[in-house]
Amino acid sequence: VDFSLSSDQRLIKDSVDSFVADNYDFAKRDKLSRTDDGFSKAHWKAMADLGWFGLAFPEGKGGFGGTPVETMILMEAFGKGLVLEPYLPSVILAGTALAHGDTTAEHAQRLEAMIGGEQILTFASAEPRSRYDYTYVTTTAKRDGSDYVVDGEKRAVPFAAAAGAYVVTVRTSGEAHATQGLSLALVDADAPGITRRDYRTVDGQRASDVTFAGVRVPASAIIGEPGEALPTLDLVVDHGIGALAAESVGLMSVMQKTTTEYLKQRHQFGVPIGSFQALQHKNVDMLIEAEMARSITFYGTMALLSETDPVQRKRALSATKVQIARSGRFVGQNAIQLHGGIGMSEEYFVGHYFKRMTMIEQLLGDVDYHLKRYLAGEPALHVDARTNGHANGTARPGAEGEPEVVGASWSP
Amino acid sequence: MDLSFSPEDLAFQETVRDWLRTNLPAEIKHKMHVGLELTKEERIDWQNRLSAKGWMAPGWPVKYGGQDWSVTQRHIFEEEFARNDAPSMLPFGVAMVAPVIIEFGSEEQREHYLPRILSSEDWWCQGYSEPGSGSDLASLQLKAERQGDEYLLNGQKTWITLAQFANWIFVLARTDASAKKQNGISFILVDMATPGVTVRPIETIDGGHEINEVSFENVRVPAKNLVGKENEAWTYAKFLLEHERNGTAGVAGSFHMIERLKQMAKSERVNGSALLDDTEFQQKIASTEIELLALSFAQMRSLAAESSGKSPGAESSFIKIKGTEIQQRITELMKDAVGYGALDPDTHSAAWYFNFRKTSIYAGSNEIQRNIIAKRILGL
What we know:
The structure holds 2 protein chains of 2 kinds. Chain A is built from 12 helices and 10 strands. Chain A has helices at 7-23, 26-33, 41-49, 68-81, 87-100, 105-115, 230-265, 277-306, 310-339, 350-362, 367-376, 389-392, and strands spanning 121-124, 140-144, 147-158, 165-171, 182-188, 194-200, 206-218, 222-223, 267-268, 271-272. A 4-stranded mixed beta sheet of chain A has the order 1-4-5-8, with helices on one face. Chain A has a 4-stranded antiparallel beta sheet with strand order 2-3-7-6, with no helix packed on it. In chain A, strand 9 and strand 10 form a beta hairpin. Chain A is globular. Chain B has 12 helices and 10 strands. In chain B, the strands form 3 sheets. Chain B has a 4-stranded mixed beta sheet with strand order 1-4-5-8. Chain B has a 4-stranded antiparallel beta sheet with strand order 2-3-7-6, with no helix packed on it. In chain B, strands 9-10 form a two-stranded antiparallel ribbon. Chain B is globular and about 75 Å long.
């Protein structure tokens, strides 16, 4: 067990920290988020040149053989800087789908183009009636000769306006809620029949509601076996949660520290307000929640790295999302509260961290959704643990029937 | 970064499991499983088994009988104990007075006291709080007056856990009344058989007898029982409190308590089905379990920092706060789980709930812990 970074990881951390320091002071960030694109193509190219888009993918797929730990390092720094570039949708979500979805040569090429910075991708999953259930898909892809024809609506597709292609969850067979019949289709953004409603999201990013009306794609657009995409989809969501968790750790760290500084510097009643115990204890609780979030992020990242049972992996990432959202809400709300009026001001930076943190509560499923998904993976409980393998010590963690600590097969 | 268990760690885990399987007496295991108090004899029987194996005080330096275990191994050891209903070691001797003697005592004291802890010849209790000195510990008034080669002790200590079983007590006493508060305090070891030492039981709201008041009336203690330097014990006391806090988070035990909570919810019926199948109750348990997962990684991080040379500092305050909040939440849910059963003392669940209110008070109340973090980490 070792929490330290390797020398390669240390280099990545130094490089992303200085990238954020150089390019992401709050004034620059705010201006960038109000441009047409909502991010910088120059930054995007710089990130590609630094090799960040291939970090987490295997060498055989055009990547550099890194792990979710590298993603965690980058995303935490992106959180600290409120970075706007579409790293999550393009690299983590669409990239994971292409890298793990049993790719063809054509898909491998598209992944490499994304890694090289030539094309931005995004991931279109949520629908007007699916809420957070990513397996509830009514967008259809119907076979027509050698093509598929895609029809349906996707909601809040991140940075769709900037993307050259979308990885879209579609149904090639079955009812909306069936786990069979789910597929992933790579659809070019300029295909006839696609319309978008673009908007600047409340946290200063970009998203679109996208309608597909008779959009024709070749059969080769389907990633992996038609109808068998659920395991890949689960993995995409889990990697997305891991990345959001690390981003949240960065956000919380800034909100907590900046609040501490403010308490020292702001005077009322002739003294720094940080001398008041009521405010001190709130700020301490912010620190505690930020540390809890950091700790669960390690847990989730390690599950992505080494948990081989998908049920346990999903459970671990759901736990991660629940803790992140709860800690983030506490830290964010209290950052605003302890700053007082200035915390409400759009001109001041802390509110923008709070807004991003608040939107992350929703992304890829909220607390209620993930508590349910966590419980769905709960191992069966026997009436008396003493009469089972648990007591005689023969059972391994996670063995059937053993009331076991979650994730104990790999957690320390 | 690698948080998985190495093959050596897994082998160590197997060793601990095997040993517990053959050495943990069935009656003790049963009592721990259903949450009953152990007798003094049962505790000593258990300690002797651990001592024979060399596992009584694994955290001590090897030359005094400790084990050269990694952070992961210490974690595995505690986790396996909790998971297998094995009693964890009472901290007062092994984890409280011993580290102070090892760090600040004389070689003569180490040679005398440490083996007696390992053999359970001595049972230690902790004399810190006084009726007038709780959170403001430095205001303590137990007087120790130097008279020749003796100290004369007069005063009172309170909230002393299991003093009724102990034959030795370590106290913080005031040796210089003229000095500023934190100065003038000394760390003194007292044989409880000394004339003038009186133990009175204090019954707690859960109906148990864990804690006591101990009074000192003209108690004569040899001056050689002073640990470290006279008047400088405040440093030792803080050192000890930090060690104590890391031990009070009870992470491994809380995982076990959650399993027990689930068992309770499985037997409780609601309209014919198990309470454990009730979505709302499930979510309450899951929420606590998730916090505990986060805390277990926080504790690992803290231990890893400690093993790389940093002493457990103010971080141990945060783990104490969160760990005890989680313990209390679990006992709340246990009390809730049994419904009307809570009224029946035989279910014990209300008693656990009341008993665990102590956790956010002892070892420095959680409010005091927040003061420590505000001052020492945040610099407020």
